[in-house]
Amino acid sequence: PPPRVILTTAYSExxxxxxxxxxxxxxxxxxxxxxxxxxxDKVMASAEKEKKQETTEVVSPQSLVIKVDADWxxxxxxxxxYIQSWGNYIxxxxxxxxxxxxxxxxxxxxxxxxxxxxxxxxxxxxxxNKIDRMxxxxxxxxxxxxxxxxxxxxxxxxxLKEIQ
Length: 164
Prior knowledge:
Elements (H helix, E strand, L loop, with lengths): L5 E4 L5 H4 L6 E4 L4 H25 L5 E6 L2 E6 L3 E7 L2 E6 L3 E4 L3 H7 L5 E5 L2 E4 L5 E3 L2 E4 L2 E4 L2 H13 L2
Parallel strand pairs: 1-2
Antiparallel strand pairs: 3-4, 5-6, 5-9, 6-7, 8-9, 10-11, 11-12
């Protein structure tokens, strides 16, 4: 992005023309401190406005990118069944297959949106919309039976109530 410019000069005849070039403000010498601060506030306000526009335009990813052996793969969130910790690796399960990935559970948990995914056990992370049912300290995702850790159980129940 182009820099935000405040022109300072003793020549007032070029003030109007300067705005054609995207100048934020035009200060005539001698410059009073309150007028200078007002110009700086304009620059800061335009930067803030631009930053807000950028953050609203950013589309959140809808897939998890993983490295399997020498290949990089993109797995859409909708295809993820669950993720299991396996030491310093994780097993990523989809309906079709399982991928072994050199990544920790903490890393993958940070990458996934917490609104859609939840860690339900020290070794398991699941997409909340894939839970078919919960019975006792287990959830059922397709044919998989996944344990629910005691420290995660209350939050899981609360989250499941929210999405009904």
